[in-house]
Structure formats: structure tokens, C-alpha cells
Fold these 3 entries.
Entry 1:
Amino acid sequence: MKNRVKKEIDFSVYTETYLGKVGELTLKGSNIKTFEKQLVNNLRTALETADAKVKVLTGRLYVHCTKESCGVVEFALDHLLGITGWAKVQNVEKTMEAITEAVKVEGLKAKSAGAKTFKIDARREDKSFPLNSYEICIQAAGVLFDDGTMDVDVKHPDCVINVEVRDKAYVYCAQKKTGRGLPVGVSGKGLLLLSGGIDSPVAGYRMMRRGMRVECVYFHSYPYTSEEAQKKVQDLAKTIAMYGMETHLNVVPFTEVQMKIKQKAPEEYSTLMLRLCMMKVANMIAKHIGSDAIITGESLGQVASQTSQNLAVTESFAELPLYRPLIGLDKEEIVDTALEIGTYATSILPYEDCCVLFSPKHPVLRADVEESRKLYEAMEIDDLVAKSFEEREIIRYSIRDEIASMKENSTL
């Protein structure tokens, strides 16, 4: 077997460096390498078409790239789950002369942005470095304080300049927070019932943050729901795919199913019967794609179909574990996350889905499982449900393809 030769990074080409801070992964035990490998593989896949090199070492994720690739690298890091944040850093030699010069550059940038006070935060991972963390702070701070660039304030500084002494010295100031959580791919696969509303995209994102790959299903009732409504859901699927690496959106034609529900079911049960039909299709798709669970955006008591009793009826039709990550959240908390991940503006576009358009004036609030099952069976609707499953359209979205498109169109 041939020995693999480790290729050194050519820093004359890969002149720019980014550092990502690994958060929850550091709490893992003997399986931490599995999580780190998934994190690196995710970022490498996203940046497959970019000029960038990725590695992870002692709680830090490193990306070295060309200047032209900075935009796509920052886009990928903004959407990467499994890190708490990232910063563009100066990558310098491990000497105090190089470190203090880099600190001065960061201080002048902070001052030009309006900062008047600063502090130095130093970490010495390389214990062979002659100065300890405190001594690094003292010498680095003196460069900015002695020449009057800024005043020191260790309690409430306008900016914090970080110095990390590792394989090299890394100096940075501005940091950007990200989604935290676990790398997508370490927690199996889930199927998300995706509507055009605010809640379901947030539910999918929250499961992605726990490391789950997420596929999507959307129920479309043309012409009662417009093409704009479907486009809205496609945009939502594309947005959350940027966090989940990729997703497949299953667009299920549901017009015939809804019309039969309207004909056969008591009006007050129509929304609940629709949810049961959706769950039947979700079971089929989930088994087809090897999903471990079904995910919904339900929040307890938010609407009539989400009372405790009605949720129990819906769950009784699920053939896989049913995850409801929003179950205890109020609307304000859900909206905050939607704003954070960029789905809110799309979700509030005035194109309503089939659940809204066919809602009864006085829906049942406390349905019984057995009674609901009898009403479902009386509709004799399983053949139409199976037909809608067979006629679904599948659309794929991935962050890799999005970055490739951005590069091609020079949008980053």
C-alpha cells in the first residue's frame, strides 16, 4: 500500500484565511472525530467548485482560499451548521513581531469603524511558544495603547482583538455568529411537510441544526392554489437547503384528494381529514427515501388543527416517529428564527396554500382518534392518495449548485 503524501497548502495562492469556531462538537467524547469529519465533508462539498482548502484542528475549522473565492466561502460559512461563528483572520508567523503588527492592523480597522476602546484576548495552544496568554495580551495591547490608537477597556470594550497561537498565529477582530448545532448528516434523515407558511421552514431548519438531513413534501391543489404558491414553496425549500446541504422537494398533486374530502367529509372535519391524507402520503414518501422520521411545523394551540386532541389524531396516522420541533414555541419565537434564516419575507407573500383555502368556518377542535379514523375510512380515498404519491414531481436544491451558479454569474 502506497503511503499518502500530505500536500502542504500553497499560501502564495491561498492567501486568505477563515477560522470557524466549533461549539457543541467539543462536548463529544470518543466519537468527536465522526462529527468533525462530517463538518469538514459538508464544507468541502459546499465549496467543491471554489478555490478553497478545508481542515479542522483542535476545536477550530480552517478555510484557506484565493482572494476571488472569499465571497462564496463567506456564504458557505454563514450557512454551515456545526460552528458557532467565523472570522476572517490574519495568518502570520509565530513571532511577537508578526503578531503585534497584525494586531495593529486589526486595531486601525476597528478604529476606522468607530471603536474607541479595545481589549486583547489571547489563547496559546502551542505551549512551546515562549510567552503565555497573559504576556501575549500585555505586549499586543501595548502596540495600540502606547501610540494612542485606542484605550484599553477589559470589561466593556468596543472591540476584542483575538490572538490564537496554534500551528501559526491567527489574529482577528470582527466575528460573525452562525447557527451552531451539529453538522448535518450525523442524525439520520427526516421528511418535512413544507407549506408556504412561516412555521414549517423553521421546523426543518431546527432539525437540520440537530444534524438531520431533511427532504420536503409540498401538497399542491392547482388551480385552487396558484403557480405562485408553488414557486413560493420552492423558494423556501431552496433557502433551507443552503443550511441542510441539499434537499429534494416532492411536489404532490392534491386537487382530486381535496375535492373528494369536500364531497365526503363533514365540513368541520375537512381540515383534519386533509391532514390525515397528507400523513398517508408522507408515510409513503418517507419509506421510499429511507427517512427515519416525519417532521411538521405544528405548534400546540396555534390553530384549530393543532389542539392536543387533533394533534393526537394526526399522529395516530404516522407510521414513523413524528417530530414537532416547534411544539412549545410561540409565534414570536418562530418569526425570530424565520427572520434569522431568511425565510420570513418569502413566507408572508400573499399566495395561500391548500390548507388555508379549504378551511371550514367552524373546524372541529377536539376530535376523537377512533371517530376520525372511521370518517377517514368512509371517504374511501386511499386510491386517490396513492395516485397523488405516484404522480409527485421531485425538485432538487443544493448549496453546492447554488455556489457554482453564483460563481458563474459573478454574484459573489
Entry 2:
Amino acid sequence: MTQSYLSPFKSKLPNSAISIFSRMSLLAQQQQAINLSQGFPDFDIDPKLISLVTHYMQKGFNQYAPMQGTIELRKVIADKYKQYYNLHVDQNEEITITAGGTEGLYSTIAALIHPGDEVITFEPAYDSYSPSVQSFGGKVVPIELLASDFAIDWNVVRSKITDRTKLIIINNPNNPTGRILSQQDILALEKIVEETGIYVLSDEVYEHLVFDGKKHISVLESDILRQKSFVVASFGKVLHATGWKLGYVVTNPMLTAEFRKIHQFNVFSVNTPIQFAIADYLSDISYYDSLAPLFQQKRDYLIEGIKSTPLQILPCEGTYFLLVDYSKITHSEELAYAEKLTQEKKVATIPISAFYTSGLNQNLLRICFAKKEETIRKALQNLQQM
């Protein structure tokens, strides 16, 4: 028998398994339940946008786009920052089109993190952050934020900083909590960056989904943070087309050059006809103004229906997710209760414990309201039988 000298495969992510989103969506499918777990709209995108995609395909825009993205789309993004933030963002040197927000996050982390570097995250945190850091040999330093306000204690943040701290990741507005950072939060972060030189990765994919007259504050609005920050954004969230996987990263020219070194060897470039179609569609910049009212109406409809259940509602300032507390019903662990709700009431949600490294149980579930009113109504009818 020939002796094998092949060593066992060593996983870079030995503790990673199927995501909670895939797990709950699969259970929803098996149980024929209403899926309010995974964050995707179940309503159609604008037929005009679909027509524009078809138009550009038929016009022959079907080969590689420029690595940094089409100039038409980058110009539309620069115009948006001028209109909504009164900022000049250079369309050539500061904007890169990516294969969705997740590629933007991953390529940013790849550009920054070396083995042994430490990255501060705030939990509950979106599930791609930690594995991305770990895959490049970085160490995640999670800071737990607790219900109901999920406020950041910046003194705690300072206590976690070491000479190995390379990056702080923020998500504003935050998935899953639905909270937004205040001006005081931004100023505290600014002071830390000014004193330490730490970089910031700001996940701002829900920037246009902020409710009740509140304002999203981008790190790009701070002169200090802008020099050390990468902002990740997503067209999937604003165009209701998560399956298109198109986003972008904004950072200063020096950091853009480093980001593009990774991006070009990751995906190189992204979907050409859709870039042209989105640029055409968003040339009417007023489109962005329709987003907050649309999703606030859905949020309010869901909240009003939940009031007649034993579930307690936590504040939702942005995103298209609402948190509910089920502690008046049971103190079962969140995953077990989410599965029970899917099986017995035919409504799938996400346990917030999945967003904590420690699996912290606070009797909380995340509900996605990026759905048709009909879908939300059916889910409420089931929940009202609790």
C-alpha cells in the first residue's frame, strides 16, 4: 500500500458552520412558514429598472466593466454624497464598485489586516465581520452591547485598545438592533482615531433607511474620520434587489489604491449592464427620498399588529429589522424559541444570540419587515394567536 504524505486539511475557519440566516430560511421552507428571518424584500423591484437592465444588455454592455466600476455609476454616487451630505467625493480616486456590500467588507479587511492584528467589533454584529478578520489571521475583540438601548460605552472601547489594535468596525444604522449612532458617538470615535491612528470600517448599507425624522451621520462627514475610514454601501438595500450583489466602497485616494489591489484580484469587476442601469435609474436622485417613508410605513404596520401580542417591541430607528422581546411568554433560549415559533406559529425570525460570540440570551428575536403588507398581515395573524 502506498503511504500517503498528504497532511490533514487545516481549516482557516474551523468553527464556522451554516449561517443562522440559511438555517432559519431552510426551516421556514420545510415548515411552510412565513419567512421574516432573512433580510430580503419579497416585493418586486421597479419595472423601469428591469427595463433598463434589459436595454443595456441589448445594447451590448455585456463584457468586463472597468475594475473600479463604470464612470457613469461612480459619478451618480459622487452626486449623491454632494446632494445628501454636502461632501465632495472624487468619482475617480475615492469610489470603487463592489460585488455587494459583503465583498466591500471582505476586501477592506483583506487590505488592512495582517496576522496578529486586533479588530474591535460591537455585538450583536453582522455575521461576516469576524470570519473575514479571522481568515487573514486577525484577532476579533468583541464588545457586547446590551438591550434595550445597545449603547456604546466608549470608556470600555478605550480599555480594549492595545498596540495591536488595527481596526474598529461599526455598523450604522445597525443590523440587527435597528439603532443609529448619535453625534456624541461619532465625536467619541473621532477622538479615539485622532489619538491612536486606528482605522474604521463603517458598514452604512442602511444609510437611507432612517426613520422618524432622524438623520444618518456618515463617518465621511468628519474630516478626521474620513482620512482613516472605509465606508461600505449597498445598492441591494436601496433598490430592493439583494440578489444583484452590487455595492461600493468609499475611502480616500491612498486607501482606495490599497483597497483596489485586493478588489482586482478578488472579483476584478462586477456586473456591467446592471451598473449602467443603476446609474441611469439613480440619475433621478430624488428616488432616495422615497425609501425612509416606504419602510417606516412597513415598520409601523408591523408594530401596530404586534401590540396585540405578548411580544414587547424595542425601538427601531433604522434598517428594515425590528427586535421583539418574548420574555413575557418564556425564558427559553432564543434559537430554541425561534425554531418553535417557526414550527408552531409558522413565522420564521432570527435569534439575536446568533449575533454574539458568547451566544448571549436576552429573549430577543429579529423580524424583517421588508415585505409586502400582505406578508406582514399573514404573519401578524399567526403571531396574534400566541
Entry 3:
Amino acid sequence: MSGIYIHIPFCKQACHYCDFHFSTSMKKKDEMVLALAKEITVRKNEFENETVETIYFGGGTPSVLSNDEINFLISEVYKNYKVAENPEITLEANPDDLSAERIFELSKSPINRLSIGIQSFYEDDLKMMNRAHNSAEAKKCLEETTKYFDNISLDLIYGIPGMSDEMWRQNIQTALDFGIPHISSYALTVEPKTALSKLIQTGKIAEPQDEVASNHFMILVEMLQKNGFIHYELSNFGKENYFSKNNSAYWLGKKYIGIGPSAHSYDGEKRGWNIANNSLYIKSIQNDELPIETETLTISDRYNEYIMTGLRTIWGVSLERIEKEFGLEYLDYLKKQSQKFLSDDLLSIENNILKPTPKGKFLTDGIASDLFYLNLEE
């Protein structure tokens, strides 16, 4: 199983918290679509023996593309790759791009999964984050999409300054009331050089508090599990049969090709990333050059990635796999490093699988970094 990720590097406006690669100028959109199509074609031999099971339009805001542009890029994948009979084809979209007419058109296209960037149903939160939609648009859009799409995911952000536990519960409840089968939810984080970081520095917005975020996370886990969701990855919750196949492939270490500026690729041994500059990306592709840098992962790199992704998912870290793939030295090291977390009831071992306990879940990333294998290999 492998996947193709297509990065659409355009947004109508910049959200204050975002540090992804995008441009708010659409001037080069036509050239970009042709460059993406060409990269899809040029890289087909990387997947000679692979079947593509997922196609994912991420960004940026992929819904700024027209349906014809989206369908054109999907057809280029079909033309050049072996595609599974029923692939998961996801489009990330913002509510302001999803008019009733657009949703109906999309339902007639090969897109069969929508990932909608709601973030919050509260007006003040949306303004603070500089989202392009308002609360009424968010609800209207879900009302329409649920008529035509069954496989829908939405994003919600917690730990927003000024958001009470009750407001956060209401945000989750609103999503549940629409019968959405998948929710991705993240803490508001302050990335350097973002507008949010500047607003906090100048005292215009309060700094997010870890304690509030931790509390919101507990509420999220409790409410969604009560409503039949499976907490299958630290930030992702899905009903049975509604896990994101695209994201699950990343976490399970499957191969994927990243198309477009700043997109990442992975083939099991090497990781690659495209240049994060629209003009240079287009120019390179037009000159028949792939604007990609790659690194070959060491055993330690691969071990560390497995620890990080394994601990974040319900599949955990298999001690048997550690021994088989990385050797006894790594297994002994992991057992030694995890001892204090096992004693503190933050990790547990069941059926030879290492996993965070409910108490340890919110601290997963910090725990994982303490289990990393460092400086032990040149």
C-alpha cells in the first residue's frame, strides 16, 4: 500500500497560527497545476511495483483549485500509476470554498473524502485565528456536505486562550450533532515567525496555557470515546472503518510520494523534500529537474521514527519488531529508557507492545523523545 500526497500551496489569507508553506497570491496557479501534473508523470518509476491506495490533496488550501483542476491532477495519477480499485481520495477544504453547488459538483468527482478545516464554531476564535470563514458558514457547509458525503473529517483546535471547558465541550458537541465520523484535533501551538507569535509578544493575545490544553485534550478523549470514536492516533479519532487511510500509511511507515513545493516523500529507506518556494519549484520542473533533496535514514533514524509514530497510535511499539529490525542493542536500550515511564504509569507493556497509558497520552511526544537513540552511531 502506498500513497500520493499533492501539496497545493495557495490560501486566500494567512491564518495567524500557520507555518506551512503557501502563498496568498494566486498569480502562478495555472503554471503550478501544470508543474504538479508534470512532477506526477516524471516520478512514476518510483512506484513501478506499488499500488496507490490513497491520493491526498493537502496544503495550503486545495479547495481554491477548481473542480476541473482537481480532476485533471487525479487523472494524471491514474494515467501514470497503478491505482487500487477503491482508493481513498481526500480533499482538504475550507468552509468558505464549499458552497452547496461546489459540494454537489465534488460529489460527482472522484473525491470520496473531505477534510474540512473548521477549527472552531465560535466567531471570536475564528477572528483571532484569522480564518476566512465565519461560524454560520462552518455550520451551513457541514449541513450540505453531509447530504452528499459520508466520509468526512473535520479539524478542531483546542487550548485557545479564553476558551472555557464548557465552550470546548460545545464545539465537540456541534461536530457530533452533524454525525461526522472522523475528527482531527490539535492544541493551538505558537510557531516562531507566525502572526500569532507576534500578537502574543505584543500582548494583543494571551499565551496558550499547557494546563488548559491538557484539560481540553482529556475532555476530547472522553467525549469522543463515549460517542463510539476510536482514538487511533494522538490527534485523530475515527468511527470504525473511518480512519484516515492516508495518515495511517504515514504512521505505519508505508511509502509515499509528495508532489508540489515543500512536499515530503518516503520510500522506506530515504526521505525527500521538495523546495519550499513556488517560483523555484515551477522553474525547476519546467527545466526537467526535480527540486528535491534526499537523505538516507540511518538505523537510529528509522528506530526513532518508529518510536515516535508507534507511540502516537493504537498500534503502539512492537518489542518483537524492535529486536527483529534493529537488533538487541536497541531493544535493551528501549527497555532501559522506558523503565521510569512504566513505573510512573505513563507507559504500559501488553502482549509485547509498548503504549502510552491514558495518563501518558497527552505527554506522548515528550516521552518519545526520551526514548530516542542518540549519538550512538556515526
